Amino acid sequence: MEPQVTDRADKSRYEILGGDGNTETAGFAEYHLSEGEIAFLHTEIDNRFAGRGLGGLLARGILDDARTRGLRVLPYCPFIRGWIGKHPEYTGLVPEADRARFGL
Prior knowledge:
The protein is built from three helices and five strands; from the N terminus they run ββββαβαα. It has 104 residues and is an alpha+beta fold.
């Protein structure tokens, strides 16, 4: 079963489930949602799940969801910012006026 990315709005974070049966939280990305913008603050993958590509799957999942929802992305989190830098097809989610500030 593929890892699942889920928006846990009650916790202001996206979670990715991994492990046997995908029932265990393998990582998360914390965010702040405000007036059409989503600011990603911190991303973390549990060391037990390191090296499985879950960070990239989480980044893709959250950014695809932001695109679907029409949200502008503010990548304060260094991991998300770096991931966008390596995947320029997501740069358009960051407001043009903010791209230089995030090095994009």
